Amino acid sequence: MFSLESAFDSRFIVVSVRAPLTLRPGSYAWFPVQFTPQGPIADSLQAEKSRGLLAEFVAWAVKDLGADPDHVVVAGFSQGAIMSASLALTEPEMVKAAVLMSGRILPEVLSSVASTDRRKKTSYLVVHGTQDEVLPVAHGRTSRETLQSLGIDPEYHEFAMGHTISDKSLALVSGWINAR
Fold first, then answer.
1. For 171, how many CA atoms within 13 A lie in the half-sphere containing its CB?
2. DSSP letter string over 19-41?
3. How many Cβ atoms from other residues are within 10 Å of residue 32's Cβ?
4. Beta strands in 110-179, from DSSP E residues, in sequence order
5. What's the CA gap between 109 and 124, in Å, rounded?
6. In 66-82, which positions are buried (b, 16+ CB within 10 angstroms) versus exposed (e)?
7. CA contacts within 13 A on the Cβ side of 24
8. Which pLDDT does position 6 carry in this prediction?
9. Any idea what the CATH number is for the domain that residue 134 is in?
10. Structural Rg of the chain based on CA atoms
11. What is the pLDDT of residues 31-44, one digit of tens each?
């Protein structure tokens, strides 16, 4: 993800966080997941532990890197999108905006979602590929619907792409973040 830094305004401090679990050399995850015919099943205990680690990291980064705490944007792809949503929904005071690229919202996080008053200041962008073979586009659409059911009006876009970030989707994400 850090290779995408050049797509963003130079005013930003861009930090790429490596997930804590090593799957194999050069491949990391926030939590184990099993892909079943009924859909992906996340290790919700590890996902929650990782959400806590991410919250600690964001707090550290704001303080130690001198970032503006009122303008933190979390953005992620796949599991990074899942973690971005989890942090933004449970700790909205930490996050001005969240970008979910080809991810989903874990159903388990819904029991920990912050109150409506606390959620008001956070904006959401959901981007998903219509040909996503890992997390089908239905996950993006469900994320949009879940956010709407929580009283959040996310911006939502689909692109003709698989489980990836295209130049077009990155341009949209960059422009959306720059506007915030």
1. 4
2. PSEEEETTEEESS-EEEETTEEE
3. 13
4. 123-129, 155-159
5. 16
6. eeeeeebbbbbbbbbbb
7. 0
8. 79
9. 3.40.50.1820
10. 15
11. 999 988 888 889 99
Helix pair angle (44-65, 79-90), 10° resolution: 70
Asked if residue 174 lies in contact with residue 5, where contact means CB atoms within 8 angstroms, the answer is no
What is the model's pTM? 0.93
Q: Name the strand (E) or helix (H) holding 45.
A: helix 44-65
Question: Which tokens belong to 140?
Answer: 């993006």
pLDDT < 50: residue spans in the chain: none
Asked if 176 and 125 count as a contact pair (C-beta separation under 8 A), the reply is: yes
Q: Which of 124, 121, 113 is nearest to 155 (CA)?
A: 124
Q: Could you give the count of Cα atoms lying within 13 Å of 113 in the half-sphere of its Cβ?
A: 21
60: domain range?
2-178
Rounded Cα distance between 88 and 96, Å, is 8
Looking at the structure of the chain, the number of domains it has is 1
pLDDT of residue 11: 86
Q: Is 104 left (phi over 0), alpha (psi -120 to 50) or beta?
A: beta
Selection from 118, 130, 70, 123 nearest residue 100 by Cα: 123
User: For 111, how many CA atoms within 13 A lie in the half-sphere containing its CB?
Assistant: 4
Cβ-proximal residues to 113 (8 Å cutoff; 6+ apart), any chain: 89, 90, 119, 150
The dihedral built from the CA positions of residue 46, 147, 152 and 124, taken in this order, carries a sign that is: positive
